[in-house]
Amino acid sequence: MSCRPVRAPVPPTPVADTLACRPDVIKAMVGAWIETGDGTSGAEAGFRIDVGTKDLKVVPHEHTNEQGSLTTVITILTTAEFHVHPKGTGGAPSTPENNILGDPNHGDTKVADDAKIDIYTFNEQGLFVYRWDTKQIIKLRDGFDWQNPCHP
Ligand SMILES: [Zn+2]
After folding, report:
1. Ligand 1 mean position to 69 CA, how many Å?
2. pTM confidence score
3. Distance 31 CA to ligand 1 centre (A)
């Protein structure tokens, strides 16, 4: 048997993530993916996670019809944000260096740092999160596995 190392921008790391494993969050991710025509519309769709009185709340983003980016509302109650990356554009959160606008003041990681929230991105390449507190991009799930319930 020969194993060739695969060069990937973000190595798959098996990390338990309670937020991305919640059934209501998985359902919302699947819904956002369908909303973008399975990642083919070029638009991004997603939702934010707000802290509610009893539990976290999934709050869908308004439609903006932007191509390859998404203007979202983040409130003081927001703790995380999830959005689709169009098919073929890379799964991981964008950065000031690689965002589609070519603008050093944009990118998912910049938004996350400014708002102090975690940003999750997903498409056919998997589910990724950028954690603002550790400044790390982590691949949580591979391929379309984010559509399935998490295994213990
Ligand atoms: Zn993004």
Report:
1. 7
2. 0.84
3. 17
